[in-house]
Amino acid sequence: MEIYGLKLKEDVKPGFNLAKAIVQAAEDIGGLKDGDVVVVTSKVVSKAEGRLVDLSTVKPSPFALRLSKLLDKPPEVVELILNESSSIVRMGRGTIVVEDLRGIINANAGVDVSNAPPGHAALLPLDPDASAKRLREEISRLTGRNVAVVISDTQGRPLRRGQVDVAIGCSGINPLRDRRGERDLYGYVLKIKEIAIADEIASAAELVIGQADEATPIAVIRGVRFEEGEGAKQLIRPREEDLFR
Amino acid sequence: MEIYGLKLKEDVKPGFNLAKAIVQAAEDIGGLKDGDVVVVTSKVVSKAEGRLVDLSTVKPSPFALRLSKLLDKPPEVVELILNESSSIVRMGRGTIVVEDLRGIINANAGVDVSNAPPGHAALLPLDPDASAKRLREEISRLTGRNVAVVISDTQGRPLRRGQVDVAIGCSGINPLRDRRGERDLYGYVLKIKEIAIADEIASAAELVIGQADEATPIAVIRGVRFEEGEGAKQLIRPREEDLFR
Lengths: 245, 245
Description:
Two copies of one chain form a homodimer.
Chain A: E1 2-6, H1 18-25, E2 37-41, H2 42-48, E3 52-54, H3 62-71, H4 75-83, E4 85-92, E5 95-100, E6 105-107, E7 120-122, H5 128-143, E8 148-155, E9 164-171, E10 177-178, E11 194-195, H6 197-209, E12 218-222
Parallel strand pairs in A: 2-8
Antiparallel strand pairs in A: 1-12, 2-12, 3-7, 4-5, 5-6, 8-9, 10-11
Helix pairs in contact in A: 1-5, 3-4
């Protein structure tokens, strides 16, 4: 299995044709091939989709003003976090963990000022699965190749220190690989193994993306086996199944 | 970056020389090189270290007998789980999440009957960081190469569906990569980014290990940048810092 980082030659601005830029950048690795998984950071998708907000246009609510002290964040950023959230899961220690409008549980609803132009914050793509599907279809149109697309985001985790990249959108790949029913070395039938392959792919890509400079927001993974499927939404554990909600 | 799966030619039994077997298997990829990361599943380390228990020798306590009904597991397995645990973090829905003797929070304290001989359960290595260190030193002695070793285990996660492989032991690699202080594309100084690189490496390796048959318990990752360091214990979030404990 190989993982290649792809550099973009220019800063991504709203309306930027990301599929075309990916296809061009992939020429350095001999072009995209059938079965490749293209991993794109959510930040670059957000920027291409114009999901940037000028903080000077945001009017914080009284609640956002109070929270901004607790969280040690600018009130405009807190207002955006609340705008992107459907509920608050945990709050404390300078952190706010929310269920965001997409159903994803993350810190700060994914609102991020890093790698956004000064005075701006980037919001997550409105519908990352739909963004992945559009990218995949456009890549297919440009190249005739059948690739999978994963949109990755950096997230903290309960119980473990440090952040890892996970999949918040995907197309052309089933994000879960069900191993239940497979047999082990001794013939024992596996009962509970269901692997979050799209999250593992996002994490693997981060090893290349995160270690280069920030102008390498794309990775291509070649030689990984996966089933066709759609939608990283499947990776969100329903509240009623979650012992930690 | 490349990831290679390594097959073992024989079933791993107590006393098996894992370092030697890894070095021999790596001949297929031209031998180990300086800077390679060798990822080994905890199961194969456990087996080599003789961490297998014959279930017929286990006498379940009254509490284990009662829990066995709630968890739908054999009472002997429940007894082993309790023996390996220092506290119970969550219980319900056929699942028991514990803080194990190593401080790791995991389901079933890592006690697992899959890929163990019939009638046996495998326990996690007693001290996975020490196991990683021994493997690394033995590989260095055999080859003269400076590699890092990561011991991986498959874990479920709060909030997200599906399991991923994480690092429960490591040597020769700092499991956390601190990006705080680095600057982004626009010169903004990153405030909170600390990447759990060893967990990402374990997840990346699973893409190769888990997709082959179970006789491929080792992966070599070549071309990933990391800092030297020791100890996957650093990846355990202290209870007082955890909003989800």
